[in-house]
Amino acid sequence: MPLQRVIVDFAADTSFNDAKTKIQEHYAIDIPESSIRLITENHAEEIANMDFTENKIYASAVSCLISETDGTMIPIVEIKLGEDIDNSEEIDRRKYRKVVWKEVRLCFSRKSDSIKRIFSAVFGSVDETGDALYQSAQRIGFDKHTKVHGIGDGATWIVDQFDRVFAKQANYLIDFYHLTEYLLEAAKLMDPINPKAWRKKQQNRMKKNYYRQVLKELKAKIKSDQLEDPKNPIVACHRYIKNRTDHIDYAGAIENNLPIGSGEIESSHRYVVQKRLKISGAWWKEDNARAMLALRVLRVNGDWEIYWKQKNLDAEAA
């Protein structure tokens, strides 16, 4: 069991081949790469089937938590056999190999005055993503009195899931920097001479919740024949803000020292998901990717020791 722990520890962060090299370097043990892969994937699959919801981070409920979710694409290999091919036949499956990209949705929740995050990740439907988001909030200390501050890029499915799992306890805010991208493009036409000044002026208005003034100024520049042109930056910016006025309360967030940008979830993708599942040359079967993702989440959530204590207890009982 101690050796298996070493194997999984290395292979959770590096390729199986690099893990083999590190084990040989530090422990002078030569283990085949195929064995390292098998042992790691078996443990990862066990982890994927475990439930850590009851492992609460705080002893009591928290008054306010921050929750975010977003997706990233990872490489998946699918084997598509024809109907006329027996699955048990000895065939070269590489001929039927299809490489695709699939979205992983990562979620996290944290106490508003703490940097300790609890993550969850899914390949599944938007409802499964919402459930995962709720589970992360439960572990932080969500209860019927907790206020949830959600931030995201304005995708309808994210807003719908916050409404579904947190209902009236959640306030959802459009990521300020995503909004700025729309203002940046519109500024080139609104004020060609000094677009930076125009953009900054609108940003300051938005931070004070003066979005009506921004909408009025944008609308004044839209010609009648441009109203339905989504490629026009001014039209796109006006539509983006107008359709999301229920989720624009930057003034309230700033006053309560809450974030107005979703940079946390975007950077989290890099070190939770992409660092291992998007390394050069790595293509995954979906089941193995799910398991490895569960292993990565286990480690970043601080549940590593809990898992191995349970494995040692199981080994002693056997």
Describe this structure in words.
The protein is built from 13 helices and 5 strands. With 318 residues, the chain is an alpha/beta fold. It has 3 domains: 1-52 and 303-318; 64-174 and 261-270, Nucleotidyltransferase, domain 5 (2-Layer Sandwich); 177-255, no CATH class. Strand 2 (97-111) and strand 3 form a beta hairpin. The two termini are 13 Å apart.
Strand neighbour order, sheet with most strands: 3-2-1-4-5
Q: Output the CATH topology of the largest domain.
A: Nucleotidyltransferase, domain 5
Number of domains: 3
Unreliable parts: none
Number of strands: 5
Radius of gyration: 24 Å
Helix % is 40-55%
CATH architecture assignment name of the largest domain: 2-Layer Sandwich
Rounded to the nearest angstrom, the distance between the terminal CA atoms is: 13 Å
> Topology as H/E string?
HHHEEEHEHEHHHHHHHH
CATH C-level name of the largest domain: Alpha Beta
- Counting DSSP H or I runs of 4 or more residues, the number of helices is 13
User: What general form does the structure show?
Assistant: globular
Main structural class = alpha/beta
Tell me about the largest β-sheet.
5 strands, mixed
**Strand content of the residues, in percent?**
15-25%
Mean pLDDT: 91
